[in-house]
Write a structure and sequence with these properties.
The protein is α/β, with parallel strands linked by helices. The chain has 15 helices and 17 strands.
């Protein structure tokens, strides 16, 4: 089983004894009485000492009139369970030949807070049963079953050890993300799909797609395809159909896609085709707050995203904004003076306008923790603060003021930071400084795979196994 340190933490809080002795637990995995090779560890489980075999030639999932999505999940997991060929007729009595699946709503919407709970039982008589409220809980149950199935090469059998099993599981946090940055290094569609598929093994349920940045604008947005002039090359661009494909691929696996269009900083790539929204050629960002062209362009982009991405959340970025270029531009300076605001006030004006654009389309705004550092409780109350700077520690103040938070600290949960060990990631606790009530405002968090040092050749090896 994949050892998903970070995501176990997002499922269930670590007992103090396990904080101190996870190495010992992992070393004993597979020994009698040790923690099972299931990751993330289920909320609760019991197991026995029997062994049951599975017959890959006859195994099937059984459900009453499953939806197309659930049926596709059955096909996907059946192939995942049995990757190796075995001769027919080698299993004995009480072999597992089917898994009965009962789902209350197998066409549920994929949104934050969806029901992901499930139960899974494996009897010594070969009976396997899955119950879930939605298809997403059923996917998690099928993944857990996948981790129970072992190939015994000596006996040429697929087997489940330590039966009977009774497992009840539900995540600790509703939002469990990995950020994928496709601006610093372009990731092929095939690479993105491989990465997303790997997330199912650890029950990650959200891709935070950092689609564009100052280095490259690699998206042929239908309403402004000229922006892709800011890509690395004509061969490293995503079409709208690529985005549709990735969103559908992720949805079929119970994974949300939350897009980020970072602004007003990190936007120099916009200036290649739209210099009118940038302060100057030699001082290209932050984007200009004084011209409607900036916000008209931004709204075109978010409309293009919202037309194909059903998720209710959208990330506006707003990190690392150095506003000095605004005062160096005479027109922007005159505009600020006329409004009676300084650079800080202009930044707030920009954030407010972008927030209004996103909310006008019925979406919730997520922004990096610089929003809290700059504007605190003057932000719209529905704004979700994404903490990435541990030294700023916005989580404590923001939750105290009633704001929701996503926790993804630089250092322990930055996957591109190779100095961060899995022990560092394991010991990081989003609610360490919070009361139980404040912790309820933490939606979750995740690992951030920034793209400066990762391309398709090494991104999987960088993300795993620390995630």
């Amino acid at each position: 089983a994949t050892v998903s340190v970070l995501n176990w933490h997002l499922h269930h809080p670590p007992p103090p004894t396990m904080q101190r002795s996870l190495l010992a637990v992992l070393a004993l995995a597979g020994a009698a009485g040790a923690a099972p090779n299931l990751w993330p560890l289920p909320k609760s489980y019991t197991s026995g000492a029997a062994k049951v075999a599975l017959d890959p030639h006859t195994f099937q999932f059984k459900a009453d009139s499953p939806s197309a999505e659930l049926a596709a999940g059955f096909e996907r997991y059946t192939a995942q369970y049995f990757p190796r060929s075995v001769p027919a007729g080698v299993v004995g009595a009480n072999a597992v030949v089917a898994a009965t699946v009962t789902v209350k709503d197998d066409s549920a919407a994929l949104q934050l807070g969806m029901d992901e709970a499930y139960t899974l039982s494996v009897g010594t008589d070969g009976a396997v049963a899955i119950t879930a409220g939605t298809q997403y809980g059923a996917y998690h149950a099928m993944e857990t079953l996948s981790q129970l199935i072992v190939f015994n090469a000596t006996e040429k059998q697929y087997v489940i050890y330590d039966a009977p099993w009774s497992i009840e599981d539900a995540p600790r946090f509703a939002h469990r993300e990995v950020l994928l940055d496709t601006s610093r290094h372009y990731q092929t569609v095939a690479s993105l799909k491989n990465i997303i598929q790997s997330f199912t093994y650890a029950k990650v349920n959200t891709v935070h797609w950092h689609l564009v940045d100052q280095q490259a604008f690699a998206w042929l947005a239908p309403s402004a395809p000229e922006l892709a002039q800011g890509s690395w090359s004509v061969y490293e661009r995503y079409t709208q159909e690529d985005l549709i494909d990735i969103v559908a691929f992720a949805r079929a696996r119970g994974i949300r896609v939350v897009f980020e269009i970072d602004s007003p900083g990190h936007a120099a790539s916009w200036c290649v085709s739209h210099p009118e929204v940038c302060p100057a050629k030699d001082c290209p960002m932050p984007l200009r707050p004084d011209v409607n062209a900036t916000f008209e362009l931004y709204e075109k982009l978010v409309k293009d995203i919202f037309s194909i991405a059903p998720d209710s959340y959208f990330h506006i970025g707003s990190d690392e904004v150095n506003t000095e270029c605004w005062s160096k531009n005479a027109d922007i300076k005159a505009w600020m003076d006329a409004k009676g605001i300084d650079e800080h006030g202009a930044f707030k004006y920009f954030v407010d306008r972008v927030t209004q654009i996103v909310q006008s389309h019925g979406k919730h705004v997520i922004g990096w923790d610089e929003l809290w550092a700059n504007f605190g409780s003057t932000l719209d109350k529905k704004t979700i603060i994404a903490q990435w700077r541990p030294w700023a520690d916005a989580t404590v103040a923001a939750t105290a003021a009633g704001y929701n938070v996503i926790w993804s600290n630089d250092g322990p949960w930055y996957l591109d930071g190779l100095k961060s060990t899995w022990e560092d990631m394991y010991n990081a606790e989003p609610c360490a400084k919070l009361s139980d009530d404040a912790c309820k405002l933490v939606l979750g968090g995740g690992g951030e795979m920034w793209g400066e040092t990762g391309d398709a050749s090494d991104i999987q090896a960088t993300i795993w196994p620390r995630l």
